[in-house]
Design a protein that fits this description.
By secondary structure, the protein is mainly alpha-helical. The chain has 46 helices and 7 strands. The strands form 2 sheets. It has a 5-stranded parallel sheet with strand order 2-3-4-1-5, sandwiched between helices. A two-stranded antiparallel sheet has the order 6-7.
Length: about 900
């Protein structure tokens, strides 16, 4: 898949002819090249790029080059550049990233970073990755990307950064670790001997050693100043007078010397230099368009022969740029000469548009101040570009346009409103109103529509925006109204938008307890997303639909949806958003079946995929699943800690919570006999034995039934009658039967316990037998786990009353778990720690930091992380604190 990166940005400059051999620097360069980072930091004109390109020519290790520009402040743009640079040495690299970037939706930074690290770790050889002109990186987001890559880089990747100023990277920490090598301005200055070699061998100027030493002293070895001085001296009759004539700081010297150089050029060349200075990169054809000349190629070749700060950016010498310092002065001179820069930018914009380089065309149109041209370009391309570019790029462009101009572009108004909803709802409302004025009065769009296919989708996009806004305002009826409108007006081929509208409807229906209708709506959205190849959206919809099926007790259907989602993501080395949530759903079903090891594997896999693979509002579900698993394994202390973490991660989303975290907390409190805490939950939740049953409170009411049973058994104050508990359980059974029974095993089990409390043990045994033989029982193999002692005693006594061979596996598991717990107090560790892992575990028990532990064990930080990950997996935890607590329970640490 093409990455739309200018070839000139990834072209490694060839060593310059006549380069002054600098053995002292070459040696330092080579010594520092194969650490984590080599930083070449010095002001403009110190020969950073020249040194690096010349030194790399002597290195056999593959080296990749990326010339940074202001666009790289966008993290996705930057990552695209890094991938393209890597492919200059390894053409097959970047497979994971390319799949994400070509997935039809904007890829998030986290996903791309994870994919890039995966791709870099799979390279067949070591690699040097050069980032030239890092000082152009100003955004914290881009800085975070590179800091992350430096921190987590594979062992075979080495970074080299050239910059005018030190980057906002963790240099002090890297310096302390010995991971940073540096070459700075004092290292780069020409020595007197190098200055003499430059004037005599490179510039062929027969100056006396005294004059050269004077120039070197005046410029303090500053290479750009010496080069400009040499250019000026080429046509100067009195070198001694010239050397005495200038002094001062670098900026003064540059201005003075560039003026001297320009004065020596003919009018055509001088004008050409000034007019093309506003182009960051250029070809002869682009120069012809901008300047109106026809001989730009000849002029460029002449400038190159004159060594006039012109740098070739490709092997064919078709793309060029000026030295940044030289270009800065030229642009300043351009402003002083009152040249019409706007017309030059506009010509550049037109040329880039003709070449299909729409981003460059938009940028130059904005620089030209031609908002109408920029708006027309954005409107023409954004409906398609939004699939691969981040929304932040669109918002940046739109912020540059006057509102009056945007308001004349109906398609832009619609997309702008949608993009603003998450950051500025009030502004989004204003643009929705403007969009609605067009859709309500189509005659007002006459002459304004340039992209008719995009315009056809605008009424539907507007309705979707209105539905999202209604959701933020807590107005479910309006969500339904607008979602229905979107479905009515969207063209049939707009599958992604139609899918979004259906899913919005599904959320409302789900929240109102109409789970069957909600499932139908979300299923429709799921089908539409698949049809449009919108894999991430389809997987997210499958996750939502699977949760509904589980709430309905239809685990087999939920499992089928999850399997299909896994198949959809099979070709994505880096899994799309929502995939981790699918694994969590599968883990929950495995827990219900008593497959704890399988559940643990699924949860570990989900965690390893990172945040980018899960929906933001679903982060708490991973911790909830871990908490339930911990409780199943008789680790209630861990279960409560994990519930606390789930609560801290909880973010209200459009999907309703049919298993509230506090209901699970009450369930665990009952398991350890804390009836008072469970009673407090019931009161705060305003639940009682007479509460009407519906889809969203059925789980909580099953917990309440357990609470009432405990209260009744102990004869505590406020205990209700057993008949009231049975009445609630019968309501739950009737509700569960629609559309098919899924939670019937637990309901029958609770009915059996109630009859036992009434002394009707024969009826209780019959109900227990029904529970373990009903059709849904095979999905509830772990039904009897983490029950209180009296329940376990009753089960041990009652299960043998069933016919031989008819007991569920859960009955066998119950006795096994009970025996294990009685003997050790904890479940045995199924996969023992290795000797090396025990060393790491003992070190984790100390106060040492990760790097200190790695040093004490004589391993790399990456190796330590691998050992720690294995330990966490075997202990069934995910943090250092939890690992130490679990190890203490098992007697592995003091």
């Amino acid at each position: 898949m093409p990455l739309s990166v200018l070839p000139t940005r990834i072209h490694k400059p060839a060593p310059r002819s006549g380069y002054v051999l600098r053995e002292r620097l070459q040696q330092r360069f080579l010594q520092g090249l194969f650490g984590r980072l080599l930083l070449v930091s010095a002001p403009a004109g110190f020969g950073k790029t020249t040194l690096v390109s010349s030194a790399l020519a002597e290195v056999e290790t593959p080296s990749c080059w990326l010339s940074l520009d202001s666009g790289d402040n966008d993290p996705v743009h930057l990552i695209r550049g890094l991938i393209a640079a890597t492919q200059t040495c390894f053409p097959d690299a970047g497979h994971s990233c390319r799949l994400l970037l070509g997935g039809g939706q904007p890829a998030d930074t986290g996903s791309l970073l994870s994919a890039l690290l995966t791709d870099l770790s799979e390279l067949p050889d070591d690699m040097l990755l050069v980032l030239d002109d890092y000082h152009l990186i100003e955004s914290p987001a881009a800085t975070e990307v590179l800091a992350f890559l430096l921190e987590h880089q594979p062992a075979g990747v080495h970074w080299l950064i050239t910059t005018r100023e030190d980057p906002s990277l963790p240099l002090a920490r890297m310096r302390a670790r010995g991971e940073l090598q540096e070459i700075r301005a004092d290292d780069l200055r020409f020595t007197p001997a190098e200055a003499r070699s430059f004037f005599s061998d490179t510039m062929h100027l027969p100056l006396s050693p005294a004059l050269i030493d004077a120039l070197e002293a005046r410029t303090e070895g500053w290479i750009a100043g010496l080069q400009l001085a040499a250019l000026s001296l080429q046509n100067h009759s009195d070198p001694e007078h010239f050397v005495r004539a200038f002094t001062g700081n670098h900026r003064f010297i540059v201005d003075y010397l560039v003026e001297e150089v320009l004065r020596q050029q003919d009018n055509q060349t001088r004008t050409f230099l000034l007019q093309t200075s506003l182009l960051p990169r250029f070809t002869p054809e682009l120069c012809n368009r901008v300047t109106g000349l026809s001989n730009s190629q000849e002029l460029l070749h002449r400038l190159e022969r004159q060594n006039l700060f012109l740098i070739a950016l490709d092997e064919d010498r078709n793309w060029f740029r000026y030295h940044h310092l030289f270009a800065d002065v030229l642009r300043n001179q351009l402003r002083q000469d009152s040249v019409d820069a706007a017309s030059l930018h506009l010509r550049a914009s037109q040329w880039f548009a003709e070449q299909g380089e729409t981003e460059q065309a938009i940028n130059h149109a904005l620089l030209a101040g031609d908002a109408s041209a920029a708006a027309a370009l954005i409107e023409a391309c954004w409906p398609e570009m939004r699939k691969s570019l981040p929304e932040s790029r669109f918002l940046s462009w739109m912020a540059s346009l006057p509102e009056a101009v945007t308001a004349r572009h109906p398609v832009l108004c619609a997309y702008y409103a949608l993009a603003l909803l998450s950051s500025d709802p009030q502004a989004a409302c204003r643009w929705m109103d403007i969009t609605r004025s067009f859709t309500d009065n189509p005659q007002t769009t006459r002459g304004l529509i340039r992209n008719h296919q995009a315009w056809a989708a605008v009424p539907g996009i507007l309705a979707i925006s209105q539905a999202y806004y209604a959701g933020a305002q807590g107005d479910p009826s309006c969500i339904i109204t607008h979602a229905n409108t979107a479905l009515a007006v969207l063209p049939q081929h707009e599958y992604t938008w139609r899918g979004a509208a259906s899913i919005l409807k599904g959320f409302v229906l789900w929240a109102s307890g109409e789970t069957s209708s909600a499932a139908n709506a979300i299923s429709n959205g799921y089908d539409n997303m698949q049809r449009d190849g919108e894999i991430s959206g389809a997987i997210s919809a499958a996750f939502l639909l699977a949760r509904i099926r589980i709430s309905q007790g239809r685990s087999a259907e939920a499992e089928g949806l999850c399997r299909r989602a896994v198949e959809l993501a099979a070709d994505f080395p880096l899994k799309p958003q929502g995939y981790a949530d699918i694994l969590v759903v599968r883990a929950r079903m495995a827990i219900n079946r008593g497959e704890n090891e399988r559940a643990s594997d699924l949860l570990n896999e989900a965690w390893s995929l990172g945040e980018q693979a899960r929906l933001q509002e679903s982060a708490h579900l991973w911790y909830l699943a871990q908490a339930i698993l911990a409780a199943r394994q008789n680790r209630l202390t861990d279960a409560f800690d994990l519930l606390d973490e789930a609560q801290s991660q909880f973010m209200p989303g459009p999907a309703p919570e049919f298993e509230p975290l506090e209901a699970w907390r009450a369930r665990f409190e009952l398991a350890r006999g804390n009836i008072a805490a469970a009673r407090e939950w019931a009161q705060q939740s305003q639940l009682s034995i007479t509460t009407a049953v519906h889809a969203l409170n059925a789980f909580a009411l099953r917990v309440l039934a357990r609470l009432e049973l405990e209260t009744l058994r102990l004869g505590l104050p406020g205990a209700c009658h057993a008949g009231d508990v049975l009445n609630l359980l019968q309501q739950l059974e009737q509700h569960d039967a629609r559309p098919r029974p899924g939670h019937l095993p637990e309901i029958l089990f609770l009915q059996a316990l109630t009859r036992h409390c009434q002394g009707a043990d024969t009826e209780a045994a019959a109900l227990l037998k029904q529970a373990i033989h009903c059709p849904a029982a095979h999905e509830q193999q772990a039904l009897f786990m983490y029950e209180t002692a009296w329940v376990q005693d009753w089960l041990n006594a009652t299960l043998p009353l069933c016919k031989p061979g008819e007991q569920l596996q859960q009955g066998q598991r119950l006795s096994e778990v009970t025996a294990s717990t009685e003997a050790t107090g904890v479940l045995p560790l199924p996969d023992p720690l290795s000797e090396r892992e025990m060393d790491v575990l003992r070190a984790l028990h100390s106060d040492m930091s990760g790097p200190e532990i790695a040093a004490s064990l004589f391993v790399s930080l990456n190796t330590l992380r691998t050992h720690s990950k294995n330990i966490y997996s075997k202990l069934g935890v995910n943090t250092r604190r939890a690992a130490l607590r679990r190890a203490a329970e098992l007697g592995l640490t003091p």
